Amino acid sequence: xxxxxxxxxxxxxxxxxxxxxxxxxxxxxxxxxxxxxxxxxxxxxxxxxxxxxxxxxxxxxxxxxxxxxxxxxxxxxxxxxxxxxxxxxxxxxxxxxxxxxxxxxxxxxxxxxxxxxxxxxxxxxxxxxxxxxxxxxxxxxxxxxxxxxxxxxxxxxxxxxxxxxxxxxxxxxxxxxxxxxxxxxxxxxxxxxxxxxxxxxxxxxxxx
Length: 208
Fold this sequence. Notes:
The chain has 9 helices and 5 strands; from the N terminus they run αααααααβββαββα. The protein is of the alpha+beta class. It has a 5-stranded antiparallel sheet with strand order 2-1-3-5-4, with no helix packed on it. The two termini are 27 Å apart.
């Protein structure tokens, strides 16, 4: 699967807000949004033009794509999947995105950012129901058990991340025991997703 390989701080600057793609750096004064709070490019510091309705919808879609780390074709596939499910398409879309394995690894505190979680999954550090899964886009479902592979549990990288993220609140649709074995206990509800997303704008965009 193709992926974005450019400077991720440019993505935050383009959206005009922190997308928390660089882990610890995003919480310091080294954050690109803190240092240069304007869009990248030679005209980025010019006065911002008022966005059209289409522009607002497009920016919301781009923001969500960048939060979860995917390119257009994969995002369009997720939207189609969400549109076919019963219920509200926008909420269905966010539920699907939240249940990606890389996002689950991030939400559980094993990584400092979603891009880092994606890399850890690709390197085969996690199992789902006892089987190694190295596909970041793998969608977990209720009842699935996610845990660190036996050979990865003693790595300082994970010990440090779990310690640094000790205060992070694990979403209520996930449970993790004292041995860092996690279980999906429900589908994520809209109120469980704490990102500033207006999903109705994405639905309106795809409805054109």
